[in-house]
Amino acid sequence: MSSSLPSRVTLVDVGPRDGLQNEKQAVAAAHKIELVQRLQQAGLREIEVTSFVSPKWVPQMADGAEVMAGIARPAGVRHSVLVPNMKGFEAALATRPDEIVVFGAASEAFSQKNINCSIAESIERFAPVTAAAREAGLKVRGAVSCAVACPYEGEIHPDRVELVVRLMKEIGVQHVGIADTIGVGTPRRVQAAMERALKHYPLAEVSGHFHDTYGQSLSNVYACLEMGIASFDASVAGLGGCPYAKGATGNVATEDVVFMLHGLGIETGIDLDALVDTAAWISGVLGRKPVSRVANAMLARRAAA
Amino acid sequence: MSSSLPSRVTLVDVGPRDGLQNEKQAVAAAHKIELVQRLQQAGLREIEVTSFVSPKWVPQMADGAEVMAGIARPAGVRHSVLVPNMKGFEAALATRPDEIVVFGAASEAFSQKNINCSIAESIERFAPVTAAAREAGLKVRGAVSCAVACPYEGEIHPDRVELVVRLMKEIGVQHVGIADTIGVGTPRRVQAAMERALKHYPLAEVSGHFHDTYGQSLSNVYACLEMGIASFDASVAGLGGCPYAKGATGNVATEDVVFMLHGLGIETGIDLDALVDTAAWISGVLGRKPVSRVANAMLARRAAA
């Protein structure tokens, strides 16, 4: 209970990529560029900007090169992009990202349904991508999806998380993000998955990625903080839905995580008011309210004041 | 991190009282009676049914006697009612509740604005109520509001929580509920308040009452579980708003707590599917969606299936 928590935490805003990719409504490149700009101004220092996936599969991200070209690239801000294969990597490389994100599932059924190959084949496919990225001086992050449960297989054993983490390590991936893709994880299950990642990666190179579909994400962040984990993905305004439960919520909202971290006395470098402004703005672009509890409460208080 | 958690947790559904009292829309007595009935059928064994406060102040609860008379009273289910003074207690007593709830704030400003007297005066007022309730064989629960922060004073020091807890103990209150009335609490602050309650009451007689205004409530429940606390208030469908941030959410949703507890392997005796049915039904009565993430995700999955 009174274990010490990290004094500083890094948040990676994945709203421009994971968030907007899962919104029903298309967003113009100019709005995506403004979103990244606003996040930077609010103090975010790591942003997952876009992906270089076939527009046939992910039309929402077809403007990846335009977005990367349009954003300001201030010193100290790291921009990552998700790539599925060498073709995507080459397109990505031309836009000079700081990091690339590769991915693998801890569930065979999910790997098959999502990218039409086995887990082992997906990692093999990422081996040359990882090598080329490191050759080019880019950092490679690996996202391990379905690390707690799978929409097709149900609960996923930590052994299977460890297997993917180990395979990623073997091909040279430098950081692993453990993702509860469908948001059903609870603290002890998430900790069990994290423990397996920590067998192969140091604390500084393991992060958590939690969806708030069942409202559990902040508890999971807290449980990870107790393990010393100090990096988390989050999405401004809670952008992004859940493809496996239409109408449900997506990524944990960055504002909600920041509120908790600041309440715990943990530094983030993020200006919560500016972040809430950003949440209100992008939600306005999408024609709806933020999903974030913090954004809604703060906006309600502002309206009353 | 790996401290053991309680194996069983009791949830007190306060939706019929704290929830509906803070909804804009009035709810008919027949619907309140059905709500209590449905909660009992879903496995809730403690329900805060109504209050006996002047209808001038709380018109939503003016039908307290009618509701208490209309609900089934199966063995093993405990029904509590909130009372503000001897007059309220006498009205309550006639309806044969199992428990009464008295209250006090950890903030002077809140006490003055909410009930127009000092903290010390409020406790004095509850002394004869508590004595009379115990004489009548009823259990007395004390709710300590603003235990983390106050809408008028800001942050509340744990010393002040301890003061109210001690005063409640002195007048014979048998259980204290530590309430984060405005939902700004984060795990360590909540634990600091809880530690003070545990100086005066045993683990079994301390509970948590968290509002989800800023999305922090489940993390706070988890932090309390790590201390061994095994009783929490919650509100089906997340009923109840926040009078201090109009448009924001109210009590933590019972479904969300149940989902986390079951995920942690903790027994509650509650049937989550039946609880979600109840959340959908009462939300329909109110003409809106549940606030609960779990209810919305489970309803979305059902709709897709």
Write a short abstract of this structure.
The first copy, chain A, has 305 residues and is an alpha/beta fold. Chain A has helices at residues 15-21, 29-41, 64-70, 86-93, 108-115, 119-135, 158-171, 187-198, 217-225, 254-263, 272-285, 293-304, and strands at 10-13, 46-51, 78-82, 99-105, 139-145, 149-150, 154-155, 175-180, 206-210, 231-234.
Chart the SSEs and their pairings.
The structure is a homodimer of 305-residue chains.
Chain A: E1 10-13, H1 15-21, H2 29-41, E2 46-51, H3 64-70, E3 78-82, H4 86-93, E4 99-105, H5 108-115, H6 119-135, E5 139-145, E6 149-150, E7 154-155, H7 158-171, E8 175-180, H8 187-198, E9 206-210, H9 217-225, E10 231-234, H10 254-263, H11 272-285, H12 293-304
Parallel strand pairs in A: 1-2, 1-10, 2-3, 3-4, 4-5, 5-8, 8-9, 9-10
Antiparallel strand pairs in A: 6-7
